[in-house]
Design brief:
By secondary structure, the chain is α/β, with parallel strands linked by helices. 45% of the residues lie in helices and 13% in strands. The chain has a 5-stranded parallel beta sheet, with helices on both faces. α1 runs antiparallel to α2. The chain is globular and about 50 Å long.
């Protein structure tokens, strides 16, 4: 009887097959995707976690950008408790590092309020809780973590060239996925390694969930590669 493959093995095979489809052997693109795959495999991804506030020792200049990942809104457009928890960690971190930019990222996920976006609601909350408007960058088009990374990366590279280092703020179970995608986007698109935006730390809110599987993270990379159909099959539990 053939032994059933582990979830990790299935995910790894899927990613390796996808790399062969999109990256010619021996090309620069293949080398970059191999680095991304190594990152996905790393047990150090998202570790250590820093609960509630960023740790000491990060850049005390506008070289640092704090990226707050969104969370689905209530149907009426108000924020769920988990998103407010992430914002509390972001606020404490922004007060600790007063020169850092703060990116709020997340699009329209309110079923009954199309005008509301995660990032828009997050920005309003941060302003109301003492973070200056001129420090806040709003990325309000994304609906997945992959899109969070792609759209935020584009904004920072084009508008904020002084930013060199990123700190991810999210729920604890989601930090590794966020780091993976932001680092992967930098690996894939920086002209050279010296120009990559570096994810150097995190601030974590203790979320309701406890774990995102290797397959879910693989799905996020499949989305990054352009295979949205497979990615959304994974997100919806069809794998």
């Amino acid at each position: 009887m053939t032994e059933k493959k582990s979830v990790f093995a299935q995910a790894e095979e899927m990613l390796e097959t996808r790399i062969k489809e999109i990256a010619p052997a021996g090309s620069d693109t293949e080398e970059r995707w191999k680095k991304v795959l190594d990152l996905w495999r790393s047990p150090k991804l998202g570790r250590p976690l820093h609960y509630d506030v960023l740790p000491d020792g990060l850049p005390c200049t506008d070289e640092l950008c704090i990226v707050v990942l969104g969370f689905e809104l209530e149907p009426d457009g108000t924020m769920q408790e988990e998103l407010i928890g992430r914002l509390e960690a972001a606020r404490r971190s922004a007060l600790k590092y007063p020169e850092a930019y703060v990116v709020c990222t997340g699009g329209g996920t309110a079923a009954e309020n199309r005008a509301a976006t995660e990032a828009g609601q997050m920005a309003k909350w941060l302003e109301a809780h003492g973070i200056a408007k001129e420090r806040i960058i709003v990325e309000d088009r994304s609906v997945t973590t992959t899109q969070n990374a792609v759209f935020t990366y584009d904004i920072l590279v084009s508008r904020c060239p002084q930013v060199k280092s990123l700190a991810i703020v999210s729920s604890d179970y989601h930090i590794a996925t966020g780091e993976l995608l932001f680092r992967a986007e930098a690996i894939l698109w920086a002209k050279n390694p010296e120009e990559e935006l570096k994810v150097i730390s995190n601030a974590a809110y203790k979320g309701y969930f406890r774990y995102l599987s290797p397959m879910f993270k693989a799905g996020a990379l499949m989305e990054l590669s352009g295979d949205a159909r497979t990615a959304f099959d994974i997100y919806s539990g069809h794998y």
